[in-house]
Write a sequence for this structure.
């Protein structure tokens, strides 16, 4: 560690920690504990999905067939790519390459925006097809009442996920801004790491939403 | 830090380090945040208590003469919501826990001081919304928000109350998160897990529940809000949903939540009993692991709230079995506290009186809990006053007694002053008598068939109801007494000194009130917890 | 100190994740009856594990307690799902 980076590291050490190592460990562990609260938050919705899929099996098949399979699949790929660029941003700052970090963060934001745009197109399509739950909901097939519930859960789950994507865009943008202002270095980059953890978590949720919503009834069409 | 002037009254500590509103409202010192919480929850305690008194007054006579059914529904709903979410849940963790967790492990502060302050602000926002809800007409869902009642039928401020609890829930999550990371990462050299005071073990177990359970309540309340506002079918059977799913999700949090309330109280008692028995706690490892056992098993019992709601009988049998099982770690604790007192040199000081009251009342509450775990008996007593009596024995007889025990035990540390001991004892006795007079008759009322949540009842229940109401006034006086002499002691109480009880534990090794960063230098722990064998057999302050 | 992992490994993980996405999408065209959701969720779990282990560095965490936190999270999620399902799958009247 050079003298200047050591000075910087001491500057970033908050008063109540003994050393940087303790601070880093606490911050990473805190983020993980936060993420398991997020898992339980989404867990409530997964529980509702599971119980109702068991009770209203056919309606769930029907509903799943009205998902836009291609947008769902492309969005899955988009999020995986954004996870890659995010982890590369963390790698870059670990190596002290600030310029590369900024580029990778910017690309991550672009992927996230692409995801939101595709999601918006998908919602718009459902809106036109009268698939928004509520008075305007119309479904011609069997058991429309429970198909409507499938759509309720679809919008609630993807809606809360999209909210997390938006928060993620905000966080990554903040990291980009702070990195441009020279806040981070090879010795101090906890916030970028934690933002990375958050972003991968958003990807993780989608990895499960994709089969549960898009794939589970798909084969009847194909 | 002023070491040279430590003996003089001018010594700098966390209370006089800085003055003015800004220094309090923007503080990140865990001790000051604890006091902010103390003021807030005391306020909510008296708000909730006010509702309770109105309820008891109405029940003085069989007819509805003080209030009518609608108002009564609001009274018990607001009483429950305020007491549970704005007093019981934060009471020990956010006040005593915030103050003591860093001190007991020898740290300067919690791991995330700013998040700690944020959690208080979230609590204030949630509490403010709750007050607004009350002032604009209140809510009458009960504290449980059962659907479809809450989403399709009631015209009161259901969404507002749900949002208020949603926000207060995040405050609770952040406190739990902070404690978990602090206990894992911030312990002083030598403070191994096996040397941690039991207060830390139980707060750690509490934090696990807060972190893992509360998010499920949050999403459940969010879904209730969505169903109510946008008519989205999630739980309402008219829209195709299953109201039992709501109950599963709600009780997945809300049953473990009673352990959020009682576990920290058990931690308080585990500190006080050894100190005033002048003995090492009996079976330290068992008491410590029992806390974790309760945290885990507590998540496997929730459907015992739904035995008559229409769940599968096979499922109910599984939940009944686990409900019996969760009594085991609780009983281990009671046995160990009793064994600690056995052949000890017992001082009947105020905290000890409260702690002993806790053991007795908690045991009664716990034993009646076993009645309710039994499938057959539960059918008989569901939704009667037996339930009300049972959970008040745990929540008020257990938790509030433990909270007051802790407040009396650590008051000298928090303020540097002693309260008048004789008044303390008087209040403890008044509360114990008032409590039993209030709630014991309710066991009989419930067993003989008086249903809960009605403002009127048949005349044969009146005698016991009058007893209960009389008890509640005694209880109210008992709760006002500590308020008065605590405030009195701030100015007139005698100086406490660093360790008035001759207690073990790191928090007693620093000054009272403690300096801003708790310790002049990071302590190194070389001794086991509760080393009372190495300490004087006398308690300095109590004769 | 934290472990720095090579970019090459990240690209490999990314490639596997993309392949698995393509595979699960393709398999959704095949009607395997009751096996379809099982296969889809199995692939999702493999993908999720890769993300947690490599992208989120769970495999390289120097703090053992953090591993405990992760395991606890999934354990409690399974309590919620499994214990609630004991009710739904044994209800005689549904």
């Amino acid at each position: 560690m050079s003298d200047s980076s050591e000075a910087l590291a001491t500057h970033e050490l908050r008063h109540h920690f003994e050393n940087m190592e303790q601070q880093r460990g606490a911050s990473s562990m805190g983020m993980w504990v936060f993420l398991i609260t997020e898992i339980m938050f989404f867990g409530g919705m997964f529980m509702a999905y599971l119980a109702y899929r068991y009770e209203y099996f056919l309606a769930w098949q029907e509903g799943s067939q009205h998902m836009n399979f291609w947008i769902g699949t492309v969005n899955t790929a988009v999020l995986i790519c954004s996870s890659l660029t995010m982890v590369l941003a963390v790698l870059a700052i670990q190596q002290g390459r600030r310029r590369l970090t900024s580029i990778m963060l910017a690309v991550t934001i672009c992927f996230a925006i692409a995801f939101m745009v595709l999601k918006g197109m998908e919602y718009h399509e459902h809106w036109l097809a009268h698939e928004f739950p509520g008075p305007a909901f119309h479904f011609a097939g069997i058991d429309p009442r429970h198909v409507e519930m499938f759509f309720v859960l679809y919008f609630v789950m993807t809606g809360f996920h999209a909210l997390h994507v938006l928060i993620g865009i905000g966080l990554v943008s903040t990291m980009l801004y702070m990195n441009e202002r020279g806040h981070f270095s090879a010795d101090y980059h906890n916030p970028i790491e934690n933002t990375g953890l958050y972003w991968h978590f958003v990807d993780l949720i989608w990895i499960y939403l994709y089969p549960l919503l898009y794939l589970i009834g798909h084969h009847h069409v194909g | 830090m002023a070491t040279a002037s430590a003996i003089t009254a001018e010594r700098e500590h966390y209370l006089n380090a800085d003055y003015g509103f800004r220094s309090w409202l923007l503080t990140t010192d865990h001790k000051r945040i604890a006091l902010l919480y103390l003021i807030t929850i005391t306020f909510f305690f008296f708000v909730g208590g006010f509702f309770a008194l109105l309820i008891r007054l109405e029940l003085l006579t069989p007819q509805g003469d003080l209030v009518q059914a609608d108002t009564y529904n609001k009274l018990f709903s607001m009483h429950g919501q305020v007491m549970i979410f704005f007093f019981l849940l934060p009471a020990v963790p956010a006040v005593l826990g915030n103050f003591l967790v860093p001190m007991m492990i020898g740290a300067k502060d919690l791991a995330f001081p700013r998040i700690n302050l944020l959690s208080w602000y979230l609590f204030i926002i949630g509490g403010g919304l709750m007050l607004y809800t009350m002032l604009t007409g209140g809510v009458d869902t009960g504290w449980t928000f059962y659907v479809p009642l809450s989403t399709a039928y009631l015209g009161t401020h259901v969404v507002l109350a749900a949002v208020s609890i949603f926000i207060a829930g995040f405050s609770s999550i952040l406190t739990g998160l902070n404690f978990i990371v602090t206990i894992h990462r911030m312990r002083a050299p030598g403070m191994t897990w096996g040397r941690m005071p039991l207060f830390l073990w139980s707060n750690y177990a509490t934090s696990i529940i807060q972190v893992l359970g509360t998010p499920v309540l949050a999403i459940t309340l969010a879904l209730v809000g969505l169903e109510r506002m946008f008519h989205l079918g999630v739980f309402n059977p008219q829209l195709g949903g299953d109201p039992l799913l709501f109950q599963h999700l709600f009780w997945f949090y809300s049953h473990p939540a009673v352990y959020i309330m009682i576990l920290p109280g058990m931690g308080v008692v585990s500190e006080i009993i050894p100190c005033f028995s002048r003995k090492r706690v009996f079976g330290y490892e068992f008491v410590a692991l029992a806390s974790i056992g309760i945290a885990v098993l507590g998540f496997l019992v929730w459907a015992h709230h739904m035995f008559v709601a229409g769940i599968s009988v096979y499922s109910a049998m599984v939940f009944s079995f686990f409900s019996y099982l969760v009594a085991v770690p609780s009983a281990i604790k009671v046995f160990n506290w009793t064994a600690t007192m056995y052949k000890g040199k017992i001082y009947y000081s105020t905290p000890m009186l409260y702690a002993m009251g806790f053991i007795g009342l908690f045991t009664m509450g716990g034993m009646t809990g076993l009645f309710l775990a039994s499938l057959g008996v539960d059918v008989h007593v569901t939704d009667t006053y037996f339930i009300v009596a049972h959970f008040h024995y745990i929540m008020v007889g257990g938790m509030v007694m433990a909270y007051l025990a802790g407040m009396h035990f650590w008051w000298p540390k928090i303020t540097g002053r002693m309260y008048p001991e004789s008044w303390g004892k008087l209040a403890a006795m008044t509360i114990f008598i008032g409590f039993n007079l209030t709630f014991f008759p309710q066991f009989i009322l419930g067993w003989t068939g008086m249903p809960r949540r009605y403002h009127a009842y048949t005349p044969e229940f009146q005698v016991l109801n009058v007893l209960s109401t009389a008890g509640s006034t005694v209880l109210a006086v008992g709760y006002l007494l500590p308020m008065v002499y605590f405030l009195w002691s701030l100015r007139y109480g005698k100086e406490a000194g660093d360790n008035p009880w001759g207690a073990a534990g790191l928090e007693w090794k620093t000054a009272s009130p403690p300096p801003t960063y708790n310790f002049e230098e990071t302590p190194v722990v070389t001794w086991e917890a509760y080393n009372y064998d190495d300490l004087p057999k006398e308690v300095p302050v109590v004769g | 100190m934290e472990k720095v992992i090579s970019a090459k490994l990240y690209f490999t993980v990314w490639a596997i994740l993309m392949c698995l996405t393509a595979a699960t999408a393709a398999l959704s065209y095949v009607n395997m009856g009751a096996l379809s959701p099982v296969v889809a969720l199995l692939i999702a779990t493999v993908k999720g594990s890769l993300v947690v282990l490599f992208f989120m560095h769970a495999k390289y965490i120097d703090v053992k307690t953090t591993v405990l936190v992760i395991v606890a999270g999934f354990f409690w999620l399974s309590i919620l799902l499994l214990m609630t399902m004991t009710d739904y799958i044994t209800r005689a009247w549904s």
Notes: Residues 69-105 of chain B form the longest helix (37 residues). The two ends of chain B are 34 Å apart (CA to CA).
